[in-house]
Amino acid sequence: MATGDTETMDRASVLSSFMTRAKSREMTLTDLIKTAESLNGLGLSSDAADLYRTWLAYNSENPLRHLVWFNFSVTLRQRGDNAGAINALRCALQISPLFGPAQINLGRALEDSGLAAQAIAQWQSFTQATPDITPEKVAHKLMALQHIGRTLENGEQLGAAEDILKTAMELAPEKPEAAQHWIALRQRQCKWPVLAASEYMTRRQMLTAISPMALAALSDDPMFQLAKAWRYNKTSVGRPETTLEPRASMRKIGTGQRLRIGYLSSDLREHAVGFALSEVLELHDKRQVEVYAYYLGEPRPADPVQARMRAAVDVWRDVAALSDDKAAAQILADKIDILIDVNGYTKHARTKVVAHRPAPIIVNWCGYPGTMGSPHHQYLIADAHIIPVEHEIYYSEQVLRIPCNQPIDRKRPIASERPSRSEVGLPEDAFVYASFNGMQKVTPNCFQRWMTILAAVPGSVLWLLTGNDDTNERLRAAAMQAGVEPARLIFAPKAPNPKHLARIGVADLFLDTLPYGAHSTAADAVTAGLPILTIKGRSFAARFCASVVDAAGVGDLVCNDAEEYVRRAIAFGQNPELLTPYRERLSAAREASTLRDIPELVRTLEKLFWKMQADGERGMTPVPDLTNLDIYFDIGVELNLENIEALDDAQYRLLYRERLDALNAFSTLKPDARFWPGADCIEAPQRARRRA
Question: How many domains does the chain have?
Answer without folding.
Answer: 2
